């Protein structure tokens, strides 16, 4: 019981800092997307492809969360966008406090789209709000079509499911309809995009979604009269 | 700081129950293997293939750990071996207390090899001993060759790394030598088996390893004069 109460306290404190982060982001007119997935589903690949396609039009920044190493941050840094590495020192998820510390050292005023790569974990990150505007789950074909049924909280929490590695569909037993039904049974609002970061297939719809969300964010800020400008 | 102390207390209490579990297992001459991996790497497939190849010779039982659903337990149950489902109710790993409750309802005296499928998570399960005799990590080709570098604790803790889905090697950029160097840099004792549960390739070496470990376990029990019999 005391563990449960402690967990509630931790989550409540986390939400307070997440609200601060949201104010910081809105104040600098930065739209933030929290990318979550199992290890190796392709969060970094999706970020790299997004930079390749949008980097000339939208000012992108990236925050990389990892339990160890800076391999992904180095890959992203080679694209010439601002990148910040959060090393969680073994913690299995990002939390709002970690993001807050990162945001305070980041050139937010120069960034319109902030892509936050969470730690590779299909369970714990779903519980911790960061103050992001949208949550995106990258799922992948080799993980199997049963994942929505086995990890329901993550699939319930997100705004978008990007199903990556569709180039492997011919070599695997993956029933897309079963996957889709699993997602929709948990989360009727989530959009599903089928992509291959390797071949580029399906990336247009994902990019169009981001551009639409960025426009909606700008309009919303104008309406609220926030964000200076 | 108080969170750290609490975590130490939790891990210490867990180790005490893990030691009890080990006594229970040794007392019933049951060799227990804790299978860990990312979601969808193939733990259930490896269990099913192991039952198919060994079920006639070795009395196998399975304990399935999941945050939700009993999909895997039902698949295993169809093979006709005793199976018990642990539903962690959202917890991101099995712990010794959960296993203890399961062992007390399980026909241990009739089981020589107990396969314990942990929750799909490459981080948290590495911290929680269950009382198992061996820890096995199932990694998979689509997750990428960088996983040992990014999730070092898990790769450091295990006795065996089973690299699954090698049938997908022709369709992916996976550098096995980079993967192997990553594992060996963290863990000089870990054996690596390359398998495809889908095609059956490489399964003999894995099965031989289990049989060898079972023999060694029996000899060790004889030497200690434990286990009745």
Key terms:
alpha/beta, 229 residues, homodimer, 17% strand, 7 strands, Rossmann fold
Structure description:
The structure is a homodimer of 229-residue chains. Chain A has a single domain (8-224), classed as 3-Layer(aba) Sandwich (Rossmann fold). Chain A is built from 8 helices and 7 strands; from the N terminus they run αβαβαβαββααβαβα. Chain A has helices at 2-27, 43-54, 71-77, 96-103, 147-150, 152-157, 176-186, 203-224, and strands spanning 31-37, 60-66, 83-87, 113-117, 134-140, 160-164, 191-194. The first copy, chain A, has a 7-stranded parallel β-sheet, sandwiched between helices. In chain A, β2 (60-66), α3 (71-77) and β3 (83-87) form a beta-alpha-beta unit. The mean pLDDT of chain A is 95. Chain A binds chain B through residues 3, 6, 10, 38-40, 66-69, 71-72, 90, 92, 119-124, 140, 142-144, 146-147, 149-153, 165, 167-168, 171-172, and chain B through 3, 6, 10, 38-40, 66-69, 71-72, 90, 92, 119-124, 140, 142-144, 146-147, 149-153, 165, 167-168, 171-172.
Layout of helices and strands:
2 copies of one chain form a homodimer.
Chain A: H1 2-27, E1 31-37, H2 43-54, E2 60-66, H3 71-77, E3 83-87, H4 96-103, E4 113-117, E5 134-140, H5 147-150, H6 152-157, E6 160-164, H7 176-186, E7 191-194, H8 203-224
Parallel strand pairs in A: 1-4, 1-5, 2-3, 2-4, 5-6, 6-7
Strand order of the largest sheet of chain A: 3-2-4-1-5-6-7
Order of helices and strands of chain A: HEHEHEHEEHHEHEH
Main interface pair? A-B, 36 and 36 residues
- What Rg of chain A do the Cα atoms give? 17 Å
Q: Tell me, rounded to a whole number, the average pLDDT of chain A.
A: 95
CATH homologous superfamily name of chain A?
Answer: P-loop containing nucleotide triphosphate hydrolases
